[in-house]
Write a structure and sequence with these properties.
Length: 245
């Protein structure tokens, strides 16, 4: 494990460690990131002293087309850890990578992989979680409103304890993946999301799709039932859930 007071992006450090052939399980944690990034090259605001920014180096025996399962797996781990430390918290996952409390986003996962031949040579799972940051210091210009565990519950958590739980729970889910395969992870993921059966809008480079979130396919892609009843498989996009009620 490597701990940094301040770094650019823990994912960059982990990708470099991947290139240097370090074994899987290596973890990089930073108190502050100056170049934290999210999906689609967006900025991940990473001030010091309040949140968790960590990356895990994995070398799963997987083909690139199912690499998104790694993100689903880590999100289960994070939600389980939050629920363990804050019993009763309304934490759930929104496809593809959002860690939610109620209708707001408290964290996200960015998995970046390297491919060798037909296989993944490594997957770097980057997790950013807003933990103790007050609501007044959260970014306001996000697509989904941002929040933190503290802003939602008033509870200040010990970040080391929470990070340890996130790593343990993610490891447990990785064990599930290795022992029982992708289907088992998808079934577990479905228990931790509140978006299935809800009306959603997906925005992506191809435009907007609206409909009911039906479930995930065997590669972890989102299936949406459109108004004309046709099913559409979504590879990636920003999801807005009309209402969680
Ligand atoms: C997202 O919601 O778009 C994903 C955000 C992922 C942020 C984390 S913080 C640790 C790791 N290092 C990064 O630069 N990004 C990820």
């Amino acid at each position: 494990m490597e701990l940094y007071k301040k770094t650019g992006s823990t994912n960059d450090i982990c990708l470099e460690l991947c290139r240097q052939q370090l074994p899987e399980g290596y973890v990089v944690i930073a108190d502050e990131q100056t170049g934290g990034r999210g999906r689609l090259g967006r900025r991940w605001i990473s001030p010091p002293g309040q949140n968790i920014y960590l990356s895990i180096l994995l070398r799963p025996d997987m083909q690139p087309n199912v690499a998104s399962i790694i993100t689903l797996m880590a999100s289960i781990g994070c939600i389980n850890a939050m629920k363990k430390l804050v019993p009763g918290i309304d934490a759930h996952i929104k496809w593809p990578n959002d860690l939610m409390i109620g209708a707001k986003k408290t964290g996200g996962i960015l998995t970046e992989s390297r491919i060798e031949g037909m296989k993944l040579s490594c997957a770097v799972v980057g997790i950013g979680l807003n933990v103790n940051i007050p609501g007044s210091e959260l970014p306001r210009d996000t697509i989904i409103p941002a929040t933190s565990i503290f802003a939602e519950t008033g509870i200040t958590l010990n970040r080391s304890e929470l990070a340890a739980a996130m790593l343990q729970e993610t490891d447990d889910c990785y064990t599930l993946l290795k022992a029982h395969g992708i289907k088992a992870v998808i079934e577990t993921w479905l228990l931790h999301t509140r978006m299935i059966g809800r009306h959603i809008t997906v925005s992506s480079a191809e435009g907007e799709t609206s409909g009911i979130a039906e479930g995930l396919d065997e590669e972890g892609r989102l299936i949406v039932r459109q108004q004309d009843n046709a099913l559409k498989t979504i590879l990636s996009g920003d999801i807005k859930v009309k209402s969680y009620d």
